[in-house]
Please model this.
Amino acid sequence: MRILVIATAAASLALNVSGFIDDTRIVRWNTLSGQKTQLVGHRGEKAFMPEHTRASYWQAALEGADYIEPDLGLSKDGHLVVNHNEWLGGNTNVASIPELAHLRTNKTWTDGGKSKTVTNEWFIADMTLAQIKMVRVNQADFKFRPQHFNGMFDVLTFEEYLQIMRNVTIDLGRSFGVIPELKSPKLYNVGRSYPRYYEDRAILTMRHYGWTKISKQIDTSQHTDLRLAPLRPLDGACLGPSVWQSFDQDTAAYLSRHTFTPVVALNQDLPWFFTPKGLDRVSKYAQVISPWKDFFVTGAEAYYKANNITWDAKEIAQMGGFIKPENLAKEIHRRGMTISPYTFYDSHQDMSYLCTKGVKPDSKSGFCPKDKRDEFFYFFAQGMDFMFVENIEEANVLRILYTNELERDQWRI
Model:
């Protein structure tokens, strides 16, 4: 379908859930493949629906996300569940359930190389699935997000998410990518029968639903209790691609060694990551790099200084120094890896760049986005292969508008 006028693109925004336009124009992008940037529905479509719920995932599919993301945790009795945080307070009604009051506690653990302490919360690792299923999910308390769906949806299991993904593939006649993030493996593997229990549980579940294959033997003997539902026939539909994610670099490497599924190495707090030799190291196990987006705008050195994160200056120098923000995408692509920065928010929300708060970017241009269009066009031009987005309708419209510019420029040539 050819879309040559801005009015057509803008109309898709007004159509809401039924308004997705699958733009099939063939133009050359700056991505590693030369194809258009893929949009990842961040926690589904959390701009409109409570995140990580059935409604959020269906909404993301109807708006035309290319991938739809779940975050994974592991219950006390070994069930993989979907929730962004390792705890359930904040965006659920857990505090109002008397039967769960005794589970409120404090925890400290390591996540992505960084120590994390959370107090007075209900942790997924301490709760059984039956207890978790008592909880209902609420929308984050932003005045511009609908609050009338609060309390309607329960916390999903990973299996339920995968069933939804098969259903939207069959019912909508379009393939969608799955991109689960394994949150805090070092927390969820505590007290388990072996150190990679959590990872292997996820691998076996993904394999059952057709989204991964095992490349190196894993310990299945500890998972005989894993009871997975029969599959709904695809009836000619094709499953989309799959990708693993983790901030834990050891887990990312483990998933890469033990499955044929590509791995996203997430990072925000490891300075060595943003050096030439750091990228060389990551490229040995990851196919996708996923940094916080400001590393492409403000840059690593300015970011870490502004956030009071220290680094070993000698180590960074030996690894080639921090890569400048305007060169980061090129250096990642040069190593054969793709890029998936996070997170691109709804236009009602602050973009959260340090340069908008007075921090000078390390780039020669000093670029600092003025609005969402400015932001998206900059990242499209940089060659982002994937982008974690919220308000997928807006992101799709901006992708169409950018394609209009690419098409016009390439026709002139």
User: Anything to note?
Assistant: The first strand starts at residue 38 and ends at 41.
